[in-house]
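Final report, Chapter 2: Outcomes

The project's central promise was a pipeline that accepts a single protein chain and returns its three-dimensional structure in a standardized token representation, suitable for archiving and comparison. That pipeline is now operational. To close this chapter, we reproduce one record exactly as it appears in the project archive, with the input sequence first and the structure output second.
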Amino acid sequence: MGTRRGFLSVGAGAAAAVGTGWTAGSASAAGSAGSPSGRQNEAPHAPHAPHAPSYDVPLGIAMEGYPSAFPVRFLRLVNQGETVDMAYLDLAPAGAASGRTVLLLHGKNFDGGSWTPTARALAAAGHRVVVPDQIGFGRSSKPALDYRFALLAQNTVALLDHLGIAEVDVIGHSMGGMLGVRFALDHPTRVRKLVLANPVGLEDYRELVPAHSTERLFADELANTSLTGIRAFYASYVVTWRRAYERNVELRYRITLSAEYPRWAQASARTYQMAYHQPVVQKLPRLRLPVQFIIGQEDRAAVGKSYATPENRAKLGNFPVLGRRAAAAVPGARLVELPGVGHLPHLEAGRRFTREVLAFLAADGN
């Protein structure tokens, strides 16, 4: 198989890794896409260990039959003339009800299920928790749409209306952070507070990453079928690999075995175009609500990083700098910096993440 490229470069103390969906690399040691990564601070069950799990059972591109920690429901919508089903989780408060609802928005290489520990903690704190799989992701339909953040935001409003929810606190991770910004700007009366966890889109990737056709991106995604590469990709998101992260590897790889994988790859290519062509960095000063940034300091994620020149790759995804710059651009924003944490602060530092979020949501005003 030829060299594979992916769509989001990430790094957490690692050299470049094979990408799947989006590719891996670090600002300090960004090699070419398709090269194996050297991991630091590995857990006993490191991704390359001989006893790492293998998979041979295909999984449908809507995760049909894959177990969920919570009941999965669906809302039927019409997007650009196509009938689609949006999957979502709706958790009732497990303790004394706060009267508030928290909306969790997943990243590009994840589904709503990746929020499970956070959702449990928020529900235990008395919040209702709603976790959608955006159209094109997770258990939801994978249509060949012209994906726009405005469309995903409108779908999310339709879900809240369906559930009878007038106002939410929003937590967005990675690409979900980009959606969270757009959602708050387009529907300001629906959002009380906004938490952005290592959001991408804090820089304009078009300045350093060349544009590619959707056909090219589709072909590159279609070739991302290596289990070793997929595991290295997800490992590059974090500083220390844990077996709990293997769920993402299993989902991503088993979907490549599906007969409908080309449809999944087409949706992935189109949502890449959305993230590449619709950065939110210029929109941050327009936010007029309480905003909290939670930034893992080892993160080096950037949309399309592997398509950039080596010189430009080194300039992309510097989250310590991007986080401070973004927080300064948003009036009254709070910034929480997490040392030793990569692109997944809600999973890598779950207790600290939950503590910071709950304190922010409970605080009056800013």
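Archive annotation: Residues 1-6, 9-46 have pLDDT under 50 and may be disordered.
This record, like all others produced under the grant, will remain available to the consortium after the project formally closes.
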